[in-house]
Specification:
The chain is an alpha+beta fold and 131 residues long. The protein has five helices and four strands, in the order H-H-H-H-E-E-H-E-E. Helix 2 (26-38) packs across helix 4 (49-59).
Length: 131
């Protein structure tokens, strides 16, 4: 009984803390990104983050694949968005749907890039146009 106790607890803990996400709605992610960039809050006004997020939105384009980019580009960095997730408190899907595009665009803005290509669930490429 004692031998099986620790592996059983390990399996149960793994199942509880594993987040299971099957899909992410691109339209919902884009609308969250646009709403966040254009909204103003009291805290955002005090810390001037609203203006920064609007600057990020206006200067960095977010693409879903290479075909959407109509100009020649060069990949200048690879990035990943992996937030700390505790599924008992908050699931992974709402967190990624709400912040993924914004985090990728902010990273591109810091590097003075022109756009971001979202590759898959957590990975993205930061691009700069060559022409």
């Amino acid at each position: 009984m004692k031998k099986n106790f620790i592996p059983t607890i390990a399996v149960i803990t793994t199942i509880i803390f594993t987040s299971c996400s099957s899909y992410f709605s691109v339209e919902k992610m884009k609308s969250n990104y646009e709403r966040r960039a254009h909204s103003t809050t009291i805290v955002g006004k005090m810390l001037s983050t609203d203006k920064h997020e609007a600057d990020v939105y206006n200067s960095v384009r977010v693409y879903m694949n290479d075909k959407e980019v109509e100009r020649p580009f060069q990949v200048i960095a690879l990035g990943a968005y992996r937030p700390l997730i505790l599924p008992l408190i908050r699931r992974e899907r709402p967190r990624i749907e709400k912040y993924y595009f914004l985090r990728a665009a902010k990273q591109a803005y810091k590097l003075k890039a022109d756009g971001v290509i979202i590759d898959d669930k957590n990975n993205y490429r930061i691009i700069k146009f060559t022409d």
